[in-house]
Design brief:
By secondary structure, the protein is mainly α. Strands 1-2 form a two-stranded antiparallel sheet.
Length: about 220
């Protein structure tokens, strides 16, 4: 139904915006993403303060930084675990965990740097988002496990702690690089950011970027 001809301009604009918007994320998805982003940001920032001498000297209070790093890392899985109470969140996890033939087409186009929407078919999540979600989830679990080995040093042999430190440090650097890429792609797509911020996206954007998605 089109807006009434005698409706005020503000009401007409609101009705038009509503008609061209589709719901992408609910409250649980958005808050889980925000809380995870905050905790991940604290982990990365405190890690930088612990390993970069210039930052360590600037910040000081190493014991406090270590404690903040440990507890933010320990809390990192909590937002996702809490959001599992949401049916919509669990449905999105199922979508992220399923790869189909169209995802292979998307990845091949990405490797060829073919940015045409017709070459990159995607459902609610494209193949790049699925790969990123799987990788960051696995990396978080590895960081949590190695971090615990480094924290409770009396529970494991020295060789375990040494190996855990090596894996933790280098994986942390890799996570920092991947997160920088993730943030860069988000900054380049205002509509995707809007979807995570408000829960809704423009219908034309959804049809162009996620043509196989049926909201």
């Amino acid at each position: 139904m089109s807006p009434r001809a005698d409706a005020p301009p503000a009401a007409t604009a609101t009705a038009t915006a509503t008609a061209t918007a589709v719901r992408r994320f609910g409250r649980a998805q958005r808050w889980a993403h925000r809380a995870t982003a905050v905790l991940m940001g604290v982990c990365v920032a405190t890690a930088a303060c612990l390993y970069v001498p210039q930052l360590a000297q600037l910040v000081g209070r190493r014991a406090f930084v270590v404690t903040l790093h440990q507890w933010s890392g320990l809390a990192l899985p909590v937002p996702v675990l809490a959001a599992l109470a949401s049916r919509a969140f669990r449905a999105d996890l199922g979508r992220l965990n399923r790869f189909g033939p169209h995802d292979r087409v998307w990845l091949r186009a990405a490797l060829r740097r073919d940015k045409r929407p017709s070459s990159r078919p995607a459902g609610k999540f494209n193949a790049g988002q699925k790969v990123y979600a799987a990788w960051i989830a696995g990396a978080t679990l590895v960081m949590l496990g190695t971090g615990l080995l480094m924290w409770f040093t009396h529970l494991t042999p020295l060789v375990w702690r040494t190996s855990a430190t090596f894996v933790h440090d280098w994986l942390a650097l890799t996570i920092g690089i991947v997160l920088a890429g993730h943030i860069g792609m988000a900054l380049a797509d205002p509509e995707a950011r809007r979807g995570m911020r408000t829960g809704s996206v423009d219908r034309d954007w959804a049809q162009r970027e996620h043509p196989l998605w049926r909201p």
